[in-house]
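Technical appendix A lists one of the benchmark inputs used to test multi-chain prediction within the project. The record comprises four sequence entries:
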Amino acid sequence: MTEQKFDLDQIRAVIRIASESPDVAELEVESPTLKISVKKVSGGVRAVASQPAGNPVAVHGAPGHPAPAGPAAVSGDHLVPVTAPMVGTFYRAAKPDAPPFVSEGDIVEPGQTVCIIEAMKLFNEIQSEVRGRVVRILVDNASPVEYGQSLMLVDTTAS
Amino acid sequence: MTEQKFDLDQIRAVIRIASESPDVAELEVESPTLKISVKKVSGGVRAVASQPAGNPVAVHGAPGHPAPAGPAAVSGDHLVPVTAPMVGTFYRAAKPDAPPFVSEGDIVEPGQTVCIIEAMKLFNEIQSEVRGRVVRILVDNASPVEYGQSLMLVDTTAS
Amino acid sequence: MFRKLLIANRGEIAVRVIRACRELGIRTVAVYSDADRHALHVRLADEAFCIGPPAAAESYLNIPNIMSTAELLGVDAIHPGYGFLAENPHFSEICQDVNITFVGPPPEAIAIMGNKAAARQRMKAAGVPVVPGSEGPVRNESEALHISNSVGFPIIVKASAGGGGRGMRVVHTREDIRRALQTAQAEAEAAFGSGELYLEKYVPEPRHIEVQILADRHHNVIHLGARDCSIQRRHQKLLEESPPPGVRERFISALGKAAVRAAHAINYTSAGTVEFLVDRDGHFYFMEMNTRIQVEHPVTEMVTGTDIVKLQIKVAAGEKLGINQGDVEIRGHAIECRINAEDPRHDFRPSPGTVAAFVPPGGPGVRVDTHAYAGYAIPPYYDSLLAKVITWGANRDEAITRMRRALMEFEIAGVPTTIPFHLMVLDNAFFRRGEVYTNFVQRRIDLSTLTPRPAQS
Amino acid sequence: MFRKLLIANRGEIAVRVIRACRELGIRTVAVYSDADRHALHVRLADEAFCIGPPAAAESYLNIPNIMSTAELLGVDAIHPGYGFLAENPHFSEICQDVNITFVGPPPEAIAIMGNKAAARQRMKAAGVPVVPGSEGPVRNESEALHISNSVGFPIIVKASAGGGGRGMRVVHTREDIRRALQTAQAEAEAAFGSGELYLEKYVPEPRHIEVQILADRHHNVIHLGARDCSIQRRHQKLLEESPPPGVRERFISALGKAAVRAAHAINYTSAGTVEFLVDRDGHFYFMEMNTRIQVEHPVTEMVTGTDIVKLQIKVAAGEKLGINQGDVEIRGHAIECRINAEDPRHDFRPSPGTVAAFVPPGGPGVRVDTHAYAGYAIPPYYDSLLAKVITWGANRDEAITRMRRALMEFEIAGVPTTIPFHLMVLDNAFFRRGEVYTNFVQRRIDLSTLTPRPAQS
């Protein structure tokens, strides 16, 4: 079965609507391809998104604010994000002309370098903490990344 | 299967309708392609009134605010309030030494005077609009009453 | 000083009066309609009493219920705010009859200024310049023609009992006079119950400049400088500022003296505003006097450091003003934007609804007068004023920049507001240069270019 | 002027700096920790960047991440606010190294004032009165005894690197000196990493009066009058006012001149505050200088009509102040109450939680600086300041009455606040008379009588 990707912008949009409505405690919207349930908690929003054949994914957003791509932004039973441990510039390869450390579809091992973050003129190698398949690289090469930003998603059930 | 986008304006509109209806606690709408469920934040005074059809409807008062003594504050299948049609002083009798128009337990007929409200030196006789038994007089004699304040409750099932 | 005061009003002005009373140590009674049970003025007052159903005629204009409440709760004064009963001489008289102080001028002063033609005659006699025109009401077409010939075209036909642009017609040629008289009379009769009309020379592109005055019962009358209220739409003020831009201090002083003369001429007491029309050559003409506190009074408070509502209550209690003209010093510049629950993209249609989020601006030089809060449901029965944002700056530039900043950070979700409109005005080059006139919005603002409010980022 | 400025701070001061930048036309970058994702400064800034986990040491004090953000987003200036990195000369130096303007004084000025003993020596040399005491650090007990004999008991032992009351001991007799030195040293070492101590004559019941100064890079230094910050609890300021009550203008002028001398002596630029201890006979002594913007700067803004943060940014960009001492005019009186999310009934314990309802006060003479809003969750990681309410009045009485009114109408639900405490102070007869001193709260306020806040009605 092919992996279906969530439309993250849709999820963010629904969460934003729930967040901006102080009267609303829970919101559920459902279309033939996607169902999103939002349950609000004090100070934030808890959301569950599911696709017909998929497992639920918890999504946290910021009320009245573009959903940050923070460490808790995307996680699930089997999708583990690699997050930025510092602020800096994200590089997929050690040098501009070198091959990327990993590409989507690659299997990574714990401790394997998956990218570099340059901060204060220092190049910091970022390692995967889990074994699995890189299903998505979320950040463009040479982009600035925030602390905690999800850089890529690793599917730990893949082999 | 093609990816369908949520109509965000539709979701917002449904939330707005729910928010603007203080009587509504939950709202669910469904079309072949979209289903929206809204559950509102609870808080404040909660009263339960029955609709003729028999389905309970949750009614929320203003949080952090005394429950209004208005006509909607107390209602039910069979209890009908007599409310003040003007601001003034509530009197149970025509004169200080006269017997009260009605007492708890009395049966009243439509059009029967049940009390007087003095406003601008004028004595206004207040009539019951229904037939039933006066089960409770809510205001002390010679007290000021607001517009719409419930003065007494009449049980229309009594005979 | 009063012990307990009833506020016969709602919305931001009711909140404003409660604030003044709290600072004066006066207990407050709020009255409210069924639609205003959760209103802020009800929450802030010491006591609150429901006076009727939502319709204003049965609640905020319901004199019997208001007076009953006043007597039942033992108040010794009533503040009418603006609108509703504020300029009703009958209400003011009833208060007098039952020995409750009406916080406003004597009924006679209200009555004179309520009749435009009578006011005009009185002002002329007092040496306050008026626009050339008819002496009193015009009875027929030939009289109107005669006057038009002497003051010259264009002329304007106005209703004696008028206001808000109804019963008004501009006439450019003698041929159009008859029809103008007919339609204006019909409109005036429908709107005010009186078809009495008068004529004035029409001043093209005038500015609306008004003077805040304060008068006590000891014959002290002072003015607190002038406000420019030229930014209007359909005769509704939208943005006001003090001092008026591009005007010399000497001119404001002359306006102020004329306003004080006007107040003396009708034995005025309380706070009031004398409105002038100012033409392109700097001539000014008496337009009307508002015998009440005005929406835009805060801009004057910001530049003078006074509290006009507190002073208004103080003089109503018979006290002396305590400040004289020499004490009044204008500092810096202040602007007010009226934030209405209206959609400027759809012809400013009123948009009641629930305010889902409400984060007012703050920081230096920003004042907010509002009765709204997060979760507030705007009732559809009353006017659409939701909040007044007033900014102060050391000069006009700073006041404008600060207003821009304040409006950008003002978060109101759930209902459209006039904020995008105000941002357009603030960014307009003519406005920035102080080139304002009562048809500024028509002439300089293209409402069709109003885009949805830009996101914060 | 700067093009883009990063605010290395959070809370109300980050919002304050964003407001100043917006009025100056400077784009803003907010940085935030994981705990502040929903913070107002993040929402108001043009760009926002997460710099670390909740702990301040890993986020708001994380120099590498802050500098990386500054470089990645191409800012040309960093404003440090107060606290965190504001008085860290190392951070200021790093900014210099990478050609980003630090909105604050030069690192040398920060460093001098960061060392209490060095600052004292420098001030003495510049002719600014200091409390009699040791010349520089005391090395041992016999030296301490010698100094104590010459200035007379009681004396106070202080940590050179100190602040906030830690590493401080009052000594009344020569017998107690040894123990005081030992405990103060231990405390200072634990708190500041340096056990260096110095001695001063102890001034009983002093007032804390400070002077706001502004200095540009063109050798212009002015002062904006004085603030009284005597209402403190455990060396934390709670209520500040300007001008200080019951003090002559001549005295404030003398304080101001001393503060300007202090600034010149260390080649100070930017906004800063020189704090003085004032004894019962009206002698004043230099205490310390805060080389940053202060929490209480708004009271000075309210009485002078200046915007200190805008001026601070302006001089950081190399511009001239544009106002001289003669332009500074004090008008009326202003008071600030710090509304902390603390429970004054339980020893002011910090009380993070979610702000369920938040309706700030408004109306005339009221300013609110806050980062809170309805629904805001106060994180437990940072200080408990929730809002600053500042009121202005034509005189001190009006400012106090207005503050009382503003605090009564301030609705904060969900967390306890210091509002009930402030109402007690405002109602205190000694406070009303202006009898304040740094131990006022201990001596005049009985916290055990604090009752739950009275209901609005």
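The CA atoms of residues 167 and 190 of chain D lie 9 Å apart. The mean pLDDT of chain D is 94. Comparable benchmark entries are summarised in Table A2.
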